[in-house]
Design brief:
Elements lengths: L2 H12 L5 H45 L9 H5 L2 E7 L16 H4 L6 E3 L11 E3 L1 E9 L2 E12 L4 E9 L5 E8 L13 H5 L16 E2 L13 E2 L6 H15 L5 H8 L4
Parallel strand pairs: 8-9
Antiparallel strand pairs: 1-4, 2-3, 4-5, 5-6, 6-7
Amino acid sequence: MSESSAGMLARFHNMPNDSRTKTLIVALLLCLVCSVIVSTAAVMLKPLQMANAELDRKRNILQVAGLLRDDRGIDELFGNIETRIVNLDSGEYSDTVDILTYDQRRAARDPSLSDALAPATDLAGIGRRAKYATVYLVREAGVVKTIVLPVHGYGLWSTLYGFLALQGDARSVYGLQFYEHTETPGLGGEVDNPKWRSLWNGKLVFDEQDQPRIEVVRGKVAPGPDAKYQVDGLAGATLTSVGVSNLVRFWLGENGFGPYLAKVRGGMQ
């Protein structure tokens, strides 16, 4: 330690403990040390956090596809799922982006990889839509049994992110699951309730003209010809229910996966 540094340290040590200057110096040093610790921890933990996020994504896809099992590892089970990139405008599979590194949520914020949505067409309230989307296919004997689509849209308090699984005919629901949102617990947060999610299973998503028809109604679904397109509303959460209806219809429509699903119904595998 140099003589000047030693002198400064001695003067600091000799300051009264109730000195405003000494208090400020101690506070600043403490903030600096804490900042270094937090920054170092964030950098060191980032790879682990990313790995956990990827594992959670796979778990949610497996669950909505009905493939999650307790006796098998997530990565092993995910090997049964085929991942493809879809051009949302053409509805065709695409190799334009790297399937291993493509991040649809990040792409939606990049003007070069996304399109701005006009208010009249932005049923889900998302502002921008990525040009490419990832889909997940479950095959049996080479035939698509289940199609898992990433979906998102605005509810009451937040954007809900989830997966909509369709039967291989691309006409009926296999399952719906949200993995990220901040809707009100006990009200809109009931989108996580397995009992409510099970109400979606088997519901038809398109009418005879292949237009998105499925919706969340207020209250209970009434018996009748429209019941096959309808799901019970969430009690006390009308705006979240409307948001779920809107986001599902958007992603099934012409600005979402509509062109792709039309090709699947036409025989594309």
